């Protein structure tokens, strides 16, 4: 799991504080832009669930339906609907309802949420917004890009969004959970492309009297297309493989770049066999002679994460890398592993009801969140 991480910011401070008996909470999120999640969406939540279970801490999950409405040209109504559908997939990962609060931004800022809660979330948004100049968030010159790279062509909705994603890292934004705990630390597991939002947040947090949130940044999970290539500096790391061979992250707009949680066994077999980029040689003779290039082989990289048996993985690494095992054998194993994961998730998701979604989204105290 650790190899999945790109870098961290102040994670050691979280661990040191935890050893001293100090508490913290987790914050992560999802931009609901598609009906179904693919494994690249699911893996961060699997990791976050692991953290919640390991540390026994509360978790807030933000569904940025407002962001996707502005970036993806979705209607407000469709963004809100997709948020609830995505919430079912998140809940299906097995989060503890007694320690987890899921919220939609479009609902968070209006209506019932605000009653009796002093508009704390929006107040923090205003405070953050006052700390960040437009020059800092936009293109500063012809050669230097600011935090977000906004230009004159971007509508003002995009410019107003960064504080929305920033303030869940401040405990006072959730008075029903953390009243009187303004110094509570926050740990954010997130994809590397979200780092700019939290660089900004970490910059303004001390000015507003809060601890800087700590981050665990992870790579984009391997899309099916390519060998891993260094990414532009803005991403602070590398992006790994799409199934068919183009650099980038998994894309909801390209069904063949990823395995979806709605894919059937037949779909998974077809995608892996047809699109999963192979590090094997161009002939059996050459493969037996030179072995597979595991640095670019997508099936092996997927198995490196999803295959739980470390001894079996090491056996595959040696046999495939030496040429004694063929690409077809590795792909067959990957199909078996992914099919089991997807079918297990699909069964768990089918058991999630609208009432369960309402329970996770209810504005309520979590009295046992640290027990």
From TrEMBL:
An annotated GO BP: post-embryonic development
Name of the top EC class for this enzyme: ligase
Any Gene Ontology CC annotation: cytoplasm
Enzyme Commission number: 6.1.1.2
A GO MF term: ATP binding
InterPro entries, sorted: aa-tRNA-synth_I_CS, aa-tRNA-synth_Ic, Rossmann-like_a/b/a_fold, Trp-tRNA-ligase
Pfam family for this entry, one: tRNA-synt_1b
CDD domains: TrpRS_core (cd00806)
Highest rank taxon of the organism: Eukaryota
PROSITE patterns the record matches: AA_TRNA_LIGASE_I (PS00178)
Keywords, alphabetical: Aminoacyl-tRNA synthetase, ATP-binding, Ligase, Nucleotide-binding, Protein biosynthesis
SUPFAM superfamilies: Nucleotidylyl transferase
Family: Belongs to the class-I aminoacyl-tRNA synthetase family.
PANTHER family: TRYPTOPHAN--TRNA LIGASE, CYTOPLASMIC, TRYPTOPHANYL-TRNA SYNTHETASE
Protein name (Swiss-Prot/TrEMBL): Tryptophan--tRNA ligase, cytoplasmic
């Amino acid at each position: 799991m650790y190899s999945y991480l790109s870098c961290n910011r102040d994670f050691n401070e979280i661990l040191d504080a935890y050893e001293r008996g100090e508490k913290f909470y987790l914050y992560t999120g999802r931009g609901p832009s598609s009906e179904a999640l693919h494994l690249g969406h699911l893996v961060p939540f699997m990791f976050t669930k692991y953290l919640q279970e390991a540390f026994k801490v509360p978790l807030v999950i933000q569904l940025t339906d407002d962001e996707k409405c502005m970036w993806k040209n979705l209607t407000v109504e469709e963004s809100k609907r997709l948020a609830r559908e995505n919430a079912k997939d998140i809940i299906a990962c097995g989060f503890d309802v007694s320690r987890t609060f899921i919220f939609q931004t479009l609902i968070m800022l209006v209506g019932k949420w605000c009653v009796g809660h002093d508009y704390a979330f929006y107040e923090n948004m205003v405070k953050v917004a006052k700390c960040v100049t437009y020059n800092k968030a936009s293109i500063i010159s012809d050669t230097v890009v600011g935090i977000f790279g906004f230009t004159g062509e971007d509508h003002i909705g995009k410019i107003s969004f960064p504080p929305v994603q920033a303030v869940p890292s401040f405990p006072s934004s959730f008075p029903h959970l953390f009243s009187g705990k303004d110094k509570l630390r926050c740990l954010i597991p997130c994809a590397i492309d979200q780092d700019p939002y939290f660089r900004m947040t970490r910059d303004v947090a001390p000015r507003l009297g809060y601890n800087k949130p700590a981050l665990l940044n992870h790579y984009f999970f391997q899309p099916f297309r390519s060998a891993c290539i260094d990414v532009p500096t803005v991403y602070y790391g590398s992006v790994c493989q799409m199934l068919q061979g183009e650099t980038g992250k998994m894309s909801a707009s390209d069904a063949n770049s990823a395995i979806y949680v709605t894919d059937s066994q037949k779909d998974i077999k077809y995608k892996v066999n047809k699109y999963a980029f192979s590090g094997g040689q161009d002939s059996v003779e050459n493969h037996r002679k030179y072995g597979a290039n595991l640095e670019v082989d997508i099936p092996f990289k997927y198995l490196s994460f999803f295959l739980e048996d470390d001894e079996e993985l090491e056996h595959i690494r040696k046999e495939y890398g030496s040429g004694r095992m063929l690409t077809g054998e590795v792909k067959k194993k990957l199909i078996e592993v992914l099919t089991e994961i997807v079918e297990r998730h699909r069964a768990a998701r089918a058991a999630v009801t609208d009432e369960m979604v309402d329970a996770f989204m209810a504005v309520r105290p979590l009295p046992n969140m640290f027990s």
